[in-house]
């Protein structure tokens, strides 16, 4: 299979690809920024570090998308790892704080870079049974998705309108569900606590450097699960979607590209840059443009949009800080419900793997920590034992 030929002229992007790219940028950023904030706050980030993390995550995926799409003339859509951010949100703050978490982000990025340059690592990630990887993701997401129900008795005046906005916007267009909920949240927060003081926050976000600190415990309990969940739920599906639409840029080069972007942006707080899945289908499909050779422009325009949104991440973070407790967590839970449903369905599709999947899910969702290693690793290990025993010959 070969990718599309280069377009005969550089020119300007067609209007249809511009429209698709803008939709991708809006959906990609506003559908998941609450989860990114939840994740970095859970790792011990300050408000300034959280704003920097959101900014650099957006700019990293924007610049990487622009570079890969232009280099390979393919609609390579790039994202931050939403499942990875959800993973961080349920882990305990590492001993040593955010600097240690950043060291784990660098380690996960290094594993992704090596997976692109050295095939055995990529094959290892690809050979993890899909049922276990999806069950681990479902276990990570379950506590987060319970947040709206837990918040309902405390702040019904927020949860009910946000839920209705999510429901009605999703009824109109599934991709509009989370942006609709975000818009309702913004209205409610503005009514409740006002709007950020631009004079204090600044219009353009200021990046904050945090020197990474590396520990074996954080590499195992944060870095390895972050790499696995990102590879299994973002990078590998992203490559498959491109190929299913007739594009075949080198997988190793794409993995190396997003891995390098992760390493470079991590000291500024960004947790993981990866290939996109849902937005990749939007850029690579016919809705982008009838001519496959021009679809790469959608990924380029989306990348520009991500960079622009990233510049104003400080305002987004300051606005979220004005919300009452549990509001942003509730919004994140609603945003991840569809991801949870898909992960659970994929985990339990094969009857032979259901025991292993349920063990993985339950241990991961338990939130236990043993020997400094978090529940996702133990869930995956326990599930692997059950998987091997169930498949062993009698």
From TrEMBL:
It comes from the Bacteria. The chain crosses the membrane at residues 20-41, 53-76, 96-118, 130-149, 155-172, 214-233, 296-320, 326-344, 356-389. Keywords: Membrane, Transmembrane, Transmembrane helix. InterPro entries: Benzoate_Transporter (IPR004711). One of its GO terms (cellular component) is plasma membrane. The keyword Signal does not apply. GO terms for molecular function: benzoate transmembrane transporter activity. This is Benzoate/H(+) symporter BenE family transporter.
């Amino acid at each position: 299979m070969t990718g599309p030929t280069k377009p005969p002229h550089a020119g300007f992007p067609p209007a249809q690809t511009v429209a698709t790219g803008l939709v991708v940028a809006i959906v990609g950023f506003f559908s998941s920024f609450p989860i990114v904030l939840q994740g970095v706050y859970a790792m011990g980030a300050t408000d300034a570090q959280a704003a920097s993390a959101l900014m650099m995550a957006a700019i990293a995926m924007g610049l990487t998308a622009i570079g890969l799409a232009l280099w390979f003339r393919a609609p390579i859509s790039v994202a931050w790892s939403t499942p990875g951010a959800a993973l961080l949100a349920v882990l305990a703050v590492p001993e040593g704080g955010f600097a240690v978490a950043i060291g784990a982000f660098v380690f996960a990025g290094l594993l992704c870079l090596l997976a692109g340059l050295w095939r055995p690592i990529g094959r290892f990630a690809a050979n993890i049974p899909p049922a276990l990887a999806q069950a681990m993701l479902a276990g990570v997401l379950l506590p987060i998705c319970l947040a709206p129900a837990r918040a309902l008795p405390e702040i019904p005046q927020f949860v009910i309108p946000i839920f209705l906005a999510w429901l009605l916007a999703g009824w109109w267009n599934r991709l509009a569900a989370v942006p609709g909920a975000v818009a309702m949240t913004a209205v409610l927060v503005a009514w409740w606590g006002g709007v950020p003081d631009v004079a204090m926050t600044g219009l353009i976000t200021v990046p904050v450097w945090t020197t990474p600190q590396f520990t074996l415990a954080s590499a195992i309990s944060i870095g390895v699960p972050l790499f696995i969940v990102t590879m299994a739920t973002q990078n590998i599906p992203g490559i498959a979607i491109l190929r299913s639409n007739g594009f075949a840029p080198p997988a190793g080069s794409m993995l190396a590209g997003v891995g390098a972007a992760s390493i470079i942006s991590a000291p500024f707080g960004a947790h993981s840059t990866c290939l996109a899945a849902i937005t990749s289908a939007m850029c690579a499909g016919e809705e982008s443009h009838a001519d496959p050779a021009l679809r790469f422009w959608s990924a380029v325009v989306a990348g520009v949009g991500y960079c622009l949104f990233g510049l104003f991440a400080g305002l987004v973070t300051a606005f979220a800080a004005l919300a009452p407790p549990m509001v942003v967590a509730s919004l994140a839970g609603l945003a991840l419900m569809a991801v949870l449903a898909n992960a659970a369905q994929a985990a339990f599709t094969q009857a032979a793997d259901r025991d292993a999947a349920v063990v993985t899910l339950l241990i991961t969702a338990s939130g236990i920590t043993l020997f400094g290693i978090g529940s996702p690793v133990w869930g995956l290990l326990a599930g692997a034992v059950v998987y091997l025993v169930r498949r062993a010959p009698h």
